[in-house]
Amino acid sequence: MSVPSVLVHKDATVLAEAVAARLITRLVDVQAARPAHVVLTGGTLGIATLAAIAATPARDAIEWPALDLWWGDERFLPSGDPDRNATQAREALLDHVDVDPARIHEMPPADAGLTAEEAADAYAAELSKAARPEDHGPVPFFDILLLGLGPDCHVASLFPGQPALYEEERPVVAVHGSPKPPPIRVSLTFPAIQAAREVWVVAAGAEKARAVHLALTGGRLQAPGAGARGRQRTLFLLDRAAAAQIPPGLGRIASP
Q1: Which residue, 52, 54, 78, 210, could crosslink 111 as a Cys pair with Cβ 3.0–4.6 Å?
Q2: Which tens digit of pLDDT belongs to each residue from 181-206?
Q3: Measured between alpha carbons, how far is 125 from 109 in angstroms, rounded to an integer?
Q4: 238/218 Cα distance (integer angstroms)
Q5: Are the CB atoms for 148 and 203 separated by under 8 Å?
Q6: CA separation for the pair 176, 172 (Å, rounded)
Q7: Residue 5 has what DSSP assignment?
Q8: From CA 38, how far away is CA 171, in angstroms rounded?
Q9: Which structural domain range is residue 44 located in?
Q10: Burial of 114 (0-12, 13-18, 19+ CB in 10 A)
Q11: How many CA atoms lie within 13 A of 142 on its CB side?
Q12: Is pLDDT above 60 for 141?
């Protein structure tokens, strides 16, 4: 796994715009060589980043019909529910660009006639179908996997103290008893997250400062964010408030 690098921006607004610009640039580079796979995240900052992409003409540099979009986790709610990450992503960006509907890989909703466990298995099967021989595993080597970071240091729907933290085989699991509503979710596990070429952890606000510190210095069972690592690159993209408790010597780079 790669050693994290830290990039710090002035505030949450500038951070969302910077992540959007970075994502566009990286996707253009990847798509010059091959089709790209990206894992999206929800949350205030994740959706603000998608809205920032929608707002810039540079978005047209991306070959949207050749982009596969996945999610790191999802609230197990009915299709179209406003609290679903996929619903918010569609409203912020996906309804405004020429994405191939077959390449938008939503996690199954609660009204699909599946239990949460069956939904997790169905998503794992979809990931396996997209994996190529060179990926050497049950999921594609995602080119970029975006993750938010909660104040308790959770990433995706991998919360401290939850059984999903110990999962080493399955790429997708059902999560019950989430400390944040709704209580039932579907989430990628660490084996799937760590299959990504690049993992980008995005966080803003003083309430995330302790979580950032733990994610950079702790162990993943107590601080799930510490397991957010990519094969080739790991970036922590932060605003100044979220970066306030970073110890010296962890590769902090101050952005303009």
Answers
A1: 78
A2: 999 999 999 999 999 999 999 999 99
A3: 16
A4: 18
A5: yes
A6: 13
A7: E
A8: 16
A9: 4-254
A10: middle
A11: 30
A12: yes
Task: Indicate the number of domains in the chain.
Answer: 1
| β partners of residue 201 | 147, 236
Tokens 């999962």 locate to 167
For residue 254, pLDDT beyond 70: no
Q: With 80 as the cut, is the pLDDT of residue 243 above it?
A: yes
How many residues does the structure list for the chain? 256
Nearest CA to 193 among 90, 41, 25, 14? Answer: 41
Distance CA 196, CA 160 (A): 22
69 pLDDT band, cuts 50/70/90, is: very high
- CATH number for position 203: 3.40.50.1360
Decide which of 220 and 226 is more confident: 226
Can you list the alpha helix ranges (DSSP code H) found in the chain?
12-31, 43-55, 85-92, 116-130, 190-193, 209-217
Cβ burial of 244 (10 Å; 0-12, 13-18, 19+) is middle
Task: Report which DSSP code applies to 108.
Answer: P
